[in-house]
Amino acid sequence: MLRLLRLLLLLLLLPPPGSPEPPGLTSLSPGAPPQAPDLLYADGLRAYAAGAWAPAVALLREALRSQAALGRARRDCGAHCAAEPGAALPVVLLDAPGPDSGPGPAQGAWERLLLRAALRRAECLTQCGAQRLGPGGAARLRVGSAIRDAFRRREPYNYLQRAYYQLKKLDLAAAAAHTFFVANPTHLQMREDMAKYRRMSGVRPQSFRDLETPPHWAAYDTGLELLGRQEAGLALPKLEEALQESLAQMESCRAGCEGPEEQQRQEEEEEGAGSQGGLYEAIAGHWIQVLQCRQRCVGDTATRPGRSFPVPDFLPSQLRRLHEAYAQVGNLSQAVENVLSVLLFYPEDEAAKKALNQYQAQLGEPRPGLRPRENIQRFILRSLGEKRQLYYAMEHLGASFEDPDPWTPAAFIPEALREKLREDQEKRPWDQEPPQQKPLTHWKDVLLLEGVTLTQDARQLNGSDRAVLDGLLTPAECGLLLQLAKDAAEAGARSGYRGRRSPHTPHERFEGLTVLKAAQLARAGAVGRQGAKLLLEVSERVRTLTQAYFSPDRPLHLSFTHLVCRSAIEGEQAQRMDLSHPVHADNCVLDPDTGECWREPPAYTYRDFSGLLYLNDDFQGGDLFFTEPNALTVKAQVRPRCGRLVAFSSGGENPHGVWAVTRGRRCALALWHTWAPEHREQEWTEAKELLQEPEEEEEMPSRDPAPEPPSRRLQRIQDKAGKPPRVREEL
User: What residue stretches are annotated with the Fe2OG dioxygenase domain (predicted)?
Assistant: First the structure.
């Protein structure tokens, strides 16, 4: 009954049919206390499954609004109560005890101080939560870890885009699709949906906007863009905004560390490990959890949506750009404040010390009032205090802690831990430069070993970092892979594009097969096992050659492997003017008007090298071509043939496209490689394991790490409920 009343209330809040939709996903009931986001989300999915698109939109939007309001309330209440008299913890109790610590306050006095402050803080938070969130406060609106992860992955927008499409609100459908895609750049179904939206006449380029862009990233990117255009004066307000919003985002994240969800996480961990100890062990354990969460906020704030790793040294790098920009506009006082702030992180930074001396010399006279930024001083002092306690807990209580900051002074790390931490650091994935690897064989030796010849190099192709190699496949191997693609298509296992009209042109059909799907089909007997194994072997062969030729001192990893076929649709080729694949770059968004290529979503920004291994040439059209950044001037053209590999770097230096396939079927193995091991293709390993297992064993289900599309998630929900599944329709 309660859910029915909630649904009716939200329906009353919807605008009448035909009324203009507010821009973006604005709140339906501004100022109202948030409701339980998990219940709203569940009700929204039920409405979606029933095809009740308007109620689904209302419920999902209200779930998003309530989740955001809950976070703001916790942040504001935390800041308010931390400043309340008597609710602040005594400073003497917050530092980690040292080996020579004396007895401290009189026996029992510290307990009274600690517990009195804790009780007052709890009272303040309870009252503030009740005022902002209604009776029960934050505890009543506790959200489980699965739902929190769904909001973090922006899954509500996956459902919203479909519901908006059904309501004929294409502008908002495209915005919701783009918002989801930014956080899930490897989601093939959404990429196809995005391509369809771009072809719709009612969708404008401005429709593809991110409705959840964190303010600090929006300001940061704008500031960098202005700096790149040498407009330091215009960039400074944006850079200042980015720094302030970054610190505010960190505070919001830290407030969540004290919420009931973190307590729930600790309880779940204790249930698995078995809780031990009494009052003080429990207090210490919970406090360590809070400190660990707070430290993780540094990395969370520095991680872009859809990325796996944070931007290194995010705050110091912002301060460096600020002091350089202030110096460019002649504001040396502000330049000094910011470079002094950099030196708080890195006291021995030679570049910062040199810049400081230069600024002081230009100022001419001493300025004793110039100090580092106060907010940065507070941030560092607080962070170091927390690190000291965590390292103490590591040494004496067996706690775990991964320090997110490279600037932590070595003196803060207990000597007994330094060697272990140094070994762990060497094992971590590198951010920019990898550890020195054993040099690989020279590319000429690799080509000779594989029986491959270099047909055209970058100079002959009128560009840079591109090459054509022949002889990677024998005619028999090409035939085996072509048969694999044909058998998979007939089995109805076309991944991503499902053999329908190409997302790039209405005049061709597009079929795709991943390595994992090929392995699963081979296990099921739908395709030949030999062809599936060859697909894996050939992809590794291409990776080895690409690394040897372009990156001998830096390991490359397969990021994605896709066997694709483009087929001309008979009767639709007369007077055709479009391309099989428009001109683009593989890791950035190409802007032909300016010649710029923006390395940002929806591009696959982690791709570093691309490869196209062709399987046949018995078709018309379909040649690959490279252009100038204007996407118009063709610089080189390559005709496909069996065993020919075209390899090139994935950036804006290699814009490329495919001429229309006007007759026949063109098949190729498309491969992308990355320097970042965290973006290694997990499906490749799964496919290899699957093909190595005995054939008579039961087929393993796919373990796709990407978020489930609405169809799969809803079918699973409905199956559990014993109701007929509702299949998600295609756009």
Answer: 561-675
